[in-house]
Amino acid sequence: MSDTRPIGIFDSGMGGLTVVKEVMRNLPNEKIVYFGDTARVPYGPKSKETIIRFSIENILFLLKNNVKLIIVACNTASSVALTAIEKNFKVPIMGVIEPGVSAAVRISKNKRIGIIGTKTTIKSRAYEQQIKKINPSIQVYSVACPLFVSLVEEGWLKTKITKQIVTDYLRPLKNKDIDTIVLGCTHYPLLKPVIQDVLGKKVQLVDSARQVAYGASQILEQQGLLTNRKKAKGQNVCFYVSDEPDNFAQQGEKFLGFKLNKVRKVSNV
Ligand code: DGL
């Protein structure tokens, strides 16, 4: 059995490209359709109802592209919308919370885990609940870091101001003796060096994107949905956005490390 349909991935904007990168690395023969909801980003400060509505619209768009699996590559949408949306669709849908949590629980030795994410993600307590489900005795310390998304979108990955902001946001975690921290937002992997520097080498950073790609390969394998075609020449990814594509293409290069072939704007998601 071989299923050559693409994998659909969506995010509020370009942050989900961190997931695209890992899926490409893990499943190089699979085609990907990516949708970045750039006209409505950020989701971080929006209400649960709005995020559910946007997520459903994004999924309907991906389904028009005949996808076989949908990855909600947005921590905010995964935190507040996943449970509500997954029961409405037949296609397998996975979020980014569970894979990140499983890795963190596996890695942490002293059972003290930090979580950072957008305001909505942290307020939802989705990470904390998922961790407690696995092991109720784990101590979880969560901090919202809303400015991190803007820093990444601006390309300020290692400036003095970035270091200062990261230091200020992470201060509450410094005396909690955490040995593991989950980067609970798609943008944060780009700030890894600064976060590591601020927290010190003893703290392990869990990049959900990597775990998500692994989780996706498992779902495809278990459900007999893997392709057996060999990788076609050129890029295997189609990029769609809901606002003007030029900025996405430019910034997207920073996330992916290669030039994005073609980014198309969709008017009616
Ligand atoms: N993609 C969002 C997340 O992972 C960050 C950007 C936003 O606020 O929309 O939480």
Structural key phrases:
six-stranded parallel sheet; globular; Rossmann fold; four-stranded parallel sheet; binds D-glutamic acid; 269 residues; alpha/beta
Question: Care to describe what's here?
Answer:
By secondary structure, the protein is of the alpha/beta class. The chain folds into two domains: 7-95 and 210-265, Rossmann fold; 97-208, Rossmann fold (3-Layer(aba) Sandwich). 45% of the residues lie in helices and 16% in strands. It contains twelve helices and ten strands. It has helices at residues 17-26, 48-64, 75-80, 82-86, 97-107, 119-124, 126-134, 147-153, 160-174, 192-199, 208-222, 245-256; strands at residues 7-11, 32-36, 69-72, 93-94, 112-117, 139-144, 180-183, 204-207, 237-241, 263-265. It has a six-stranded parallel sheet, with helices on both faces. Strands 6-5-7-8 form a four-stranded parallel sheet, with helices on both faces. Strand 1, helix 1 (17-26) and strand 2 (32-36) form a beta-alpha-beta unit. The longest helix is centred in the N-terminal third of the chain and has 17 residues, at 48-64. It starts with 6 loop residues before the first strand and ends with a strand.
